[in-house]
Design brief:
Elements: E1 4-8, H1 12-24, E2 28-32, H2 35-45, E3 49-53, H3 61-71, E4 76-81, H4 85-93, E5 98-102, H5 106-123, E6 128-131, E7 134-137, E8 142-145, E9 148-150, H6 154-165, E10 171-172, H7 173-181, H8 189-203, E11 213-216, E12 220-223, E13 239-242
Parallel strand pairs: 1-2, 1-3, 3-4, 4-5
Antiparallel strand pairs: 6-7, 6-13, 7-8, 8-9, 10-12, 11-12
């Protein structure tokens, strides 16, 4: 499912900008303009991540962070003004996971959110991603296909993990490049396509009739949501995050 992000920002222009870019990346966005509204929305909707401006009217971001952290381990990224190092330190002391400095690049913001979500997901015990004959061990960085271990390069592993974690969702080429190679990566999509081709060869996936990774023309790639189960397994959808 698409991650649900609660954006807590009192500047309407910044809130709208963030909402636009996150929605474009397939995320669900909730917004709040002050601390009390944020806590009410948080308690009612249980978002997957908070993007929290510190300078809020009334109940400020520090207090929001403190109260949320008392009740939940949900990831929190704080927004701070450039040069306010003390605010960042205080935010970390209250339990924030990361920070983004204003003014910010929307691409960097998306990459930071993806990275924090990925880390938090792994920490919750999602040690394995499983689909059909593919068993991806995230902690040991091993891929087993049909009982046989397949050697992947680091980039191939990261690509497969990202696509499997978002199964059923089209992931754009730009997003894949940003998250696997870094948001400042200057290479073209040719690099990505070559890695996808090699990855398909290693997992025995026919690009014309894919079992696992399909091309979404004009967008990027998608890990199929209807991967056949292994013999003897009930159902046909892949399982996710099985803890071992």
């Amino acid at each position: 499912m698409a991650p649900r992000i609660l954006v807590i920002e009192d500047d309407p222009a910044i809130s709208e900008l963030i909402t636009y870019h996150l929605t474009r990346e397939g995320m669900q966005v909730l917004t709040a303009a002050d601390g009390r509204e944020a806590l009410a929305i948080f308690n009612a909707n249980h978002p997957d991540l908070l993007l929290l401006d510190l300078m809020l009217p009334g109940l400020d971001g520090f207090e929001v962070c403190r109260r949320v952290r008392q009740a939940s381990d949900v990831p929190i990224i704080i927004l701070t003004a450039k040069g306010q190092e003390d605010d960042r330190v205080r935010g970390f002391e209250l339990g924030a996971d990361d920070y983004v400095t204003k003014p910010f690049s929307p691409k960097e913001l998306v990459a930071r959110i993806r990275a924090v979500l990925r880390r938090s997901h792994y920490e919750e015990g999602a040690d394995n991603l499983i689909a059909g004959e593919l068993h991806l061990d995230l902690k040991r960085r091993r891929l087993v296909v049909g009982g046989r271990e397949i050697e992947l390069t680091p980039k191939e592993f990261d690509l497969l993990a990202l696509l499997m974690a978002r199964r059923g969702q089209p992931v754009s080429r730009d997003t894949l490049l940003e998250e696997v190679w870094g948001y400042q990566f200057a290479g073209g999509t040719r690099t990505l396509d070559v890695h996808i081709r090699r990855l398909r060869q290693k997992i025995g996936d026919d690009p014309q009739h894919p079992t696992y990774i399909e091309t979404v023309h004009g967008v990027g790639y998608r890990f199929k949501d209807d991967v056949p189960a292994e013999p003897g397994e009930p159902g046909g959808a892949p399982s996710r995050g099985e803890a071992r």
